[in-house]
Amino acid sequence: MRRILPLWTILFVAVGLLLVIRDAPGCSWRYQIWALRSPSADPLFRFERDGKIGYIDARGAIAMPPTLPVGGMFGGEFHDGLLLVRDSLGQRFIDKFGATVLRPDALMANDFSEGLAAAAQESGNPRRDKWGFIDRTGRFVVEPKFRGVSSFSEGLARVSVDGEFGSTGYIDKFGNFVIPPRLSTGSSFHEGLAAVILDGPCRIINGGSCSRAEYRPATPSANYDCKFSFIDKTGRPISDLRFDDASDFSEGLAPVRLRGKWGYVDKSGRIAIEPQFEVASAFSEGLASVRSEGGYGFIDHSGGFVIRPSFKFVECFSDGRALVYELDENKAEVYHFIDRTGAPAFPAVYTIAASFRHGLAPVVLDGPPRSARQLAWINTAGQIVFRFSEK
């Protein structure tokens, strides 16, 4: 959770190290392989052929022939049946057959979510461009009057009135404030709850860092501490507990940090799993990845280890598989998939891979050079369903 910035400022944030590599010097990241990264993305999977991009379906059949220009490793997901494309034909949304459905009359637009897409109206000054939401006709149904916005989630969108801390709130699909813009920061709603800082104004004290944002009062004499709370859709805190950091709810539990350790709270806002981990992620398919004693493993809802913390890094379970990262006997980075017992799901090991979504995962079949990489989409049995070259 971070300050809401204009969508062109931060299009994507790397949420793990598996799919990204660090660029030196400094603290920026770039993805090594394209993958479906949003759980809400439609089941269409990108491939490259002869310098053009196309899409396959979950069976490995070509759903859209390769006609689109090659872009980066970000975006490129279908949402609500539409794909946002920016090419020589301009900014437009296309359907899965490649037909242009919508050309938004906006400076910039983002993916659709729950029938609406965030879009900006040009003001002549990039610092004053305002964001609202368009429908599938391209019409602004929420007037562009916000400095920053997030996508709709569970019927509400987080917005910032002027981009400053203390101006964050939540609107409905008519643009009406359901929760007034008085928060310092907040996450999107998940399972009816959102993690927010109620007090303020608060400022980020570790700007430019790759770690999670940390907040402190904007003035030294403040009598509040910028702790996180969970609120419901009326804006009411669900308990009196406050946390140093907090993440989204999933499967009835949310990761929280207290006194330097991560644990979990339940939907009453009470501690369900005592803070004891170095890192903790959201639950997925009944398990959550945590780091303990320098290694990653998986716990169940009781907080007990189902898979001991023995991996260098892991991603969450999806489709019954979890991607793990280790070093082989030659200290080279390798990726493979495990099942819910922690055993290899199938024998194959990859130089680069990404997690499963909708039954498929992208892998690199051989190593560098990048100009000749052989890639594939595999199923949960490790079988190749579609192979292609990236040139």
Summary?
Helices cover 0% and strands 43% of the residues.
Strand order of the largest sheet: 6-7-8-9
**Uncertain stretches:** 1-29
How many E-type strands? 37
What is the SS-derived class? mainly beta
- The outline comes out as globular
Distance between the termini: 36 Å
How would a crystallographer describe the biggest sheet? 4 strands, antiparallel
Strand content: 35-45%
Q: What is the gyration radius calculated from CA atoms?
A: 22 Å
Estimate the mean pLDDT confidence: 87
Number of helices, counting only DSSP H or I runs of 4 residues or more: 0
User: In which range does the helix fraction lie?
Assistant: under 10%
InterPro entries: WG_beta_rep (IPR032774)
Protein name: WG repeat-containing protein
Organism: Paludibaculum fermentans
Description:
The protein has 391 residues and is mostly beta strands. It contains no helices and 37 strands. The radius of gyration is 22 Å and the shape is globular. The protein starts with 19 loop residues before the first strand and ends with a strand. Residues 1-29 have low confidence and may be disordered.
